[in-house]
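Hi R.,

Here's the chain you asked about this morning:
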Amino acid sequence: MSAVRTVLGDVRSEELGVCDAHDHLFLSSPRLSGQELNDASAARAELEAFRAAGGSSVVQWTPYGMGRRAADLPPLSRAAGVHLVCATGLRQAAHYAPELFDELRGRLADVLVSELTGGVGASGVRAGIVKVAGGFHALDAHARWTMTAAAEAHRATDAPIAVHLEAGTGALDVLDLLCGELGVAPHRVILGHLNRSPELVVHRQAAASGCRLALDGPSRAHHATDWRMPDAVRAPAEAGFGHRLPLGGDTVVAGARSVDGGPGMPYLPRRVRARLALELGEVLVERILVDNPGRAFAADWR
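And the predicted structure, written out as tokens:
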């Protein structure tokens, strides 16, 4: 049976409700030193604020080795009454110590499958997506390695593959690799950050492949995604791809959380939803926030 794999177990896609399809409760990286998301109390307060604003579920895209704190996710989910999805996978090499790759070389796919089916470490929390990343307008050897492992893990489990696009670029190269060379069905691929590069023709080309476009970023004003969001949604929707558009916030630093003075997770149901409904209509926005994420993150788990 198709289901979304949450940290408290598999649920039907229609149970997700209003979904933040790309966000982070916990995140650490040497590239974000001093800005880590590592406070469980703040994470709970953020989830409670999200719930109070009408949110029901969050997909956390924090992958392996970046401080995802999987063991903390089930109690947070219970306390806040919000469904949470945990990720496995790897981001770009710059986010890790080089020796990590020596440990994972030759067994990355096995690690991903283990986290999807058996659980993350001793936590028992099963990941519900595989997170990988491209580079700026390119795919380097690291990206090809991680995406090849992600495709193997997908074939073993049917897990969705979520892709960080650096500055929104490289979408078609990613699809050529994952769906062309590696044979992943396009509808199992979710492209993140595409709206950071406002090439609307590329957006439509990507959607036409059958993949999902996880538009995101309202918590990060320097990407100018807020004022571009209606056009980024409108272009693929008017081309007939409104059913392939989930939406997320992508809170990656502590200062972006609502409890620390930023817009954070509540901004999506509290402000972004109303703005998009005014410009694009409530029917489409309901589909984007409620229906589409369930389809994007559900799998026939093996």
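The chain has ten helices and eleven strands.

Let me know if you need anything else.
M.
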